[in-house]
Amino acid sequence: MRFIITKHIIENIVSSMQPFLEKKDASSITSHIYLEVNNDKLIMKATDYEIGLESQIDELNESVNGKATVNGTNLLGILKRLKDLEIIVETENNNLIIKQNKSTFKLPMYDPEEYPALPKAQSDNKLDISMLNLINSIRKITPAIDNNNPKFELNGALVDVKNSKINFVATDTRRLAVSHLQNISNNTENQFIIPKKAIIEIQKLFLDDALISYDETNLVISNEKMTFFTKLINGKFPDYDRIIPKSLKYNFSLPKNMLIESIKLVTSLFSNIKITFNNDNIIFESLDEDSESKTQIDINLNIEKSFYLAVNAKYLLDFLSLTNNENIIIGFNESNLPFYLEDEKFFTIVMPIVLEK
Questions:
Q1: Which residues form the DNA polymerase III beta sliding clamp central domain (predicted)?
Q2: Strand pairing of 175-182 and 190-195?
C-alpha cells in the first residue's frame, strides 16, 4: 500500500477518529486505525466494538492499492508535528512508513485482515428525519443524560417514535428532559436507547443530511463520506409519561435573559438556590448557610399566594441555555413539588430540593 496526501486532510480524519479507539489496551487491534487504498480512494476505520467510524478520502495525489493498520494515537502524534505539506504513507515489512521531506517515521502494524468489520446500514428500520432536526433535538436533552448509572438505560437517550411525534428523552433522576418532532414521514413506532458517548459524537460529526437506520443492536448513520455506528443500550427506559404533570395550577411566561442574569448573580458562590414567586416580584436567594446572596425581579405575576422552589441552579441554566425564545414557560403545582419548564418543542421537569416549611 502506498499513497501521497496533503497532511491536514488525513490529520482531520485521524483526529475525528480518536474517540472511537480502544484507549486502555494499546496491544488491542482496536487501538489501531484501519487504512485501505482501493481505486484511488482511502478508506479509514476506527472502532472499539461499541462505537465506530468509517471515512472515505478521495484527495489522494498518488496511490497503490493495499491495506494497513496503525496505532491511532501514535499516528495523530506524528501528523501534528509535520508541516502542512504532502506526506508519503506506505507499508514495508509489517510496518507503516510516514515520510515528509527528510523525516521518516516507522510504526508497527497488525494484520489488517483481522480488523473487525463495522455494521452496515439497515434496510428494515429507517428513521426518516433531517440530521439538523435530529441534532437540534438531542443537543437539548444531552445535559440530562446520566453518567455511570448502575441502571445502564439511564446512561443514554431514548428515541421514542410514536404515531404522531418522535420524542427524545433523557433523565438523570433529578430532572427529565424531553424534546420532540412531528412524525411527518410516518416512521414506524419503535423505541431505542442511544448511549451518551454516541449522542455527543453524532453532534460533532454530522452537519448535512444522512441516512439513519437501526436494528435491535445497532444504530447506523451514513452519508457519502462517512459511516458511523453505535451499539444501542439493551434495557427498558423508565415510563417518562408518568412523570409529566397532567395539569398545572400556575403557568406563566417569564423573560429568559432576566432569569439567567438573576440566577447567575446569586450562584457565584453556591449552586443551590431558592426562588420565591410573589404577586408582584420574584426573589432569588442562595441556600448557602455561610454567606448571603439575594436579588429580586419586579414583575406582575397575578398570583393569589406566594410559593417557592428550591433547586440546583445548574438544571435551570442548562435548560435556559438551550432555549430559542426570549420568554420561557414555567409551571408549578405547589412548593416542594417538581416543576415544569417549557420552550416550544422542548421541556424539562426538575425535582426540587425539599425545604422544611
A1: 133-239
A2: unpaired
Q: How do the domains of the chain map onto residue ranges? A: 2-114, 125-242, 250-350
Residues in the chain: 357
Question: pLDDT tens digits, residue range 242-300?
Answer: 999 889 998 999 999 999 999 999 998 899 999 999 999 999 999 988 889 999 999 99
> What is the C-alpha separation between 346 and 177, in angstroms, rounded?
8
Which of 302, 300, 268 lies closest to 284, judged by CA?
268
Q: Do residues 41 and 58 touch, judged by C-beta distance below 8 A?
A: yes
- List the alpha helices (DSSP H) in the chain: 7-16, 72-81, 131-141, 196-205, 256-266, 313-321
Cα–Cα–Cα angle for 58, 62, 68, rounded to 5 degrees: 75
Q: Which residues of 239-276 are buried (b: 16+ CB within 10 A; e: fewer)?
A: ebeeeeeeeeebebebebeebeebbeebbeeebebbbb
C-alpha cell at 101: 521531506
Distance CA 155, CA 40 (A): 41
pTM for the model stands at: 0.93
CA 20 to chain centroid: 14
Q: Is 2-114's fold the same as 125-242's?
A: yes
What secondary structure does DSSP assign to 167-227, as a single string? Answer: EEEEE-SSEEEEEEEE-TT-PPPEEEEEEHHHHHHHHHH--S--EEEE-SSEEEEE-SSEE
CATH number of 250-350: 3.10.150.10
Q: Is 125-242 a domain of CATH 3.40.50.300?
A: no
Q: In this structure, how many other beta carbons lie within 10 angstroms of the beta carbon of residue 92?
A: 11
pLDDT at residue 22 tops 60 = yes
- Write the class of the CATH domain 2-114: alpha beta
C-alpha pair distances (Å), 240 with each of 142, 154, 178, 179 = 16, 12, 9, 12
- Which among 279, 357, 355, 284 is positioned nearest to 316, based on CA atoms? 284
